[in-house]
Amino acid sequence: MSAEMEMGKCTPVTGRALPQYDQASIERTAKALDAFSEIDISYGPQDAIAGRIDILRRRCLGKRGAPLPGLRLSQVSQAGKTKTFQRYREKLLAQSAAINGTPNPWQVLYLGLEVRVTVKMMCQQLLRLLEDPYADRGNTDEVKLRVQEFVAEKGVELLFIDEVQHLARDSQDKVDVTDEFKRFLDMGIVPVVLAGNEDSKRFFERNPQLASRLGTPLKLDPVDPTKPAELRAFAEFCHEMDKQLVSKGIFQRPSGLAAMESIDALIKASGGHVGRVCRLIEAALEHAVSREAGFIELFDLAHAIEHFAIPQRYIKVNPLS
Q1: 269, 275, 271: which is closest to 300 by C-alpha?
Q2: pTM of the model
Q3: Within 10 Å of residue 314's Cβ, how many Cβ atoms?
């Protein structure tokens, strides 16, 4: 038996032992991954975050020029933060389109900070998102003023700023950017949601005045398998994922992702973070489809854990090996 098949007790039940990369397999796998990217599943902890964000947006409508509150979120990378924000934005735009006929593409802005960032660079990024034809022109004060003008003109109601852990280190540029966040709130320019990985906690701890303006932190905690309600919600998420894999035409039969052996492996390999679970399932799906399997088998999950989760440092030892 090949090393590929020696994944503990996990051996392939359907399809081939190894992925195939002929033209038909490539097209089939690409189509399956594209269909997977369209899957959208409601999940309680993410819905709770979206609810608190929408409360912030609604309470700040029509209050430009007056001090505004904000929100913050710190969680490990690939936990599902960005997906949660994107999902909220897409739903809000869909609601706006249903009411107004056409959505405002600038209603909610998402900006990911670079490792090296200054106030001017950040403002220029925002101006590009707002389609300012002169985004790269002007000094710092001029681009700051244009951001303020464009935010009002384009009807921006909320600003997501991600990767704020890049501001945790000492430097005058990073202090200036932090002060700019305070200015957005103090001057009532736009409410801000700040997010980052676990290192961003240090950023908020070092900026208590800003942190106090951001209220009770948003939470996207991992699944605790010792809590029945959380385990039940996660099982429902996996069951819905299974249903959509079939309804999207990726597989003809369910993969049993909600079976206890699969749930246990997914939680352990992802640390219980639903964003990482989705990435694991995507990696397992690619492996399954490319070897012409009839569904995602434990064999495919074991492969995804071994070749994706462990190199990503989600986990050290494969629970399926």
Answers
A1: 269
A2: 0.86
A3: 21
